Amino acid sequence: MTRRLFGSVRSRATLAATLVVAVALLAAGTAVLLSLRSDLTGQAETEAASAARAVAVELSDGRPYDRLTGLDEDDRPVQIVDERGRLVAASEDLERVTGTGVGTVRPRQDTDGREGGDAEDDSDDANGSGGPDDDDRAPRSGEVDSGTDHSTGTATIDGTTADYRFASVEVEFEDRGKFTVYAGAPLAAERSAVGTATSAMLIGFPPLLAVVAGATWLVTRRALSPVEGIRREMAAITASEDLARRVPVPATHDEVARLALTTNETLAALESSVERQRRFVADASHELRSPIASLRTQLEVGAAHPGLLDLDGAVADTVRLQTLAADLLLLARLDAGERPGDTRFDLGAVAREHAEGRAGVTVTADAVPVAGSRAQVGRVLTNLLDNARRHARSAVTVSVRAQGEWAVVSVADDGDGVPEADRERIFERFVRLDEARSRDDGGAGLGLAIARDVAVRHGGTLTVGRAPAGGALFELRLPRDR
C-alpha cells in the first residue's frame, strides 16, 4: 500500500513540496528566533551597561557606597568589587548571584566593624562607608574605563531567581586602586518573547504544512489529469490495436499538451508504418503469386506432358522469383536499420564495373572515393542502369564526378522521361507507371525504392529530372570520403 501510494508522481510531488516548505519554515523560524533573541539580549546588555556605568560614574566622583543610587534599585543586582576580588558593596536585596565571578552578596566586615578593605585604607573613611570624608577633605575622583564586558548569569532578589545579562565597568583610583562595577538587566522579556514565538511557530507550522500539502495535491492532480487521460487512451489503443485513434490534447499549451501532440505524431507515424507494412506484404504476396503460379503450371504441364515443358519460361520465372526474393530481403534489412558500413572504395570504378558489358551504355567516370557498403551502392547502380536500359530508345550515359563535398553519379537515357507529377511516386515500393508496366520485362517496382533507401542510409540523395536528350536523368549524390 505504501509503495503504491508513493509510486505516483502526485504523491512524490506533494511529499517533496511539503518537505521543502518544512525545511524553509524551519530555517526561517530559526533565523527569526535567533534574531529576536539577539535583539532582546542586546537591549538587556544596553540596560545593564547603562546601569553599571551610572554606578561607576558616581563611584568615580568619590561618593560613599551607602549613597550610590544604583544600589537602591529593587529589580537590578549590582556588585562593586575591588582589584583583589573582594566585594565592597552590593544591592541591599541581593541574596544570590552567579555569572559575575563573585558569589558573595554581602561585603566582609573588618575587625572594627566597618565594611570594605584593610584598616589603613578604611581609616580615611570616618563614617565607615568606604568613600571619602566630605567634612575633612575634597573627594578623590577616579577614572571610568570606556570598555564594557558582558556575561550571563542568575540572581536572586527578594526570594525570586531570574536570568540576567551582566555588564562590568572598571573604575581606577590613583590612591585606592581599581574597582569593578557589575550591574545586571533581566532577561525575562527575552525568554518570554522567544518562548512565545517558539510556541506560535510550533502551533502554526503544522496547519501551514497541511495547507501546502493539500494545495500541492490538488494542483498536481489537476495538472496530471490530462496525463491520466493520455494513459487511458493509450491503454485502449493497445487493447483494440486501432492505431487510427488519438489521445486527447489539453488546451493548456504546456509540457503535457506537447506530450499529447508528440504521442499523436508517434501514433500517426506508427499507423503509417503499419499501413506501409501491410501494403508491402500484400504487394509482395501479389508479386510472388504470379511467378510461383506460372512456374507451378509449367512444372505440372511438364510432369503430365514432358514434351510440352517450356524450360526457358520456367528458368525465367525462377530467376524473376529469385530476384524478387532478393529485393524483398534487402528491403527488410534496410527497414531493420542495417548499417551500411564504412568501407572506402572508388565510386567511379564501381560505376565502370556495373556498366561493363551493357549494350548502348557510355561511361565517363572520375576516381571519387566514398565510404559505405560497396555491395549496396553497386546494387543502386545496377537498378538505375536496368531502369534506364528498359526505357531508353538507344543510348544510356553514365558519369561520375566530384562536386564540392559530394560524389555525383548521373544516369541518363534518351527515352520518354518521367512526368513531373510522378517523379516522387516512382520511388515508392511496388509503384510502376502504366507505360512502364506495358514495356516492363518483369520488374516488380522495387528497384528505385531500394536505390533511394540505400542512398538515404549512406547520407545521400537520389532524385530524377529531365535529361538533355529528353529522357530521364537520375542523379545519385553521396558524401565524399576525405
Protein described:
The structure is a single chain. Strand 1 and strand 2 (87-90) form a beta hairpin. The protein has helices spanning 2-5, 9-60, 119-122, 188-240, 255-304, 311-335, 347-355, 374-391, 434-439, 447-457; strands at residues 78-82, 87-90, 94-97, 143-144, 149-157, 160-173, 177-186, 343-346, 361-365, 369-372, 396-403, 406-413, 461-466, 472-479. Strands 1, 2, 3, 4, 5, 6 and 7 form a seven-stranded antiparallel beta sheet that branches. The protein has a five-stranded mixed beta sheet with strand order 9-11-12-14-13. The protein has 482 residues and is α+β, with helices and mostly antiparallel strands. Helix 2 (9-60) packs antiparallel against helix 4, helix 5 packs antiparallel against helix 6 (311-335) and helix 7 packs across helix 8. Residues 110-138 and 435-440 have low confidence and may be disordered.
Q: Tell me the radius of gyration.
A: 53 Å
Distance between the termini: 62 Å
Number of strands: 14
Helix content: 40-55%
Q: Outline the biggest β-sheet.
A: 7 strands, antiparallel
Query: Which secondary-structure class do the elements indicate?
Result: alpha+beta
Oligomer: single chain
Identify low-pLDDT runs: 110-138, 435-440
Q: How many DSSP H or I helices?
A: 10
The helix/strand order is HHEEEHEEEEHHHEHEEHEEHHEE
> How many distinct folded domains?
3
Shape annotation: rod-shaped
Mean pLDDT: 83
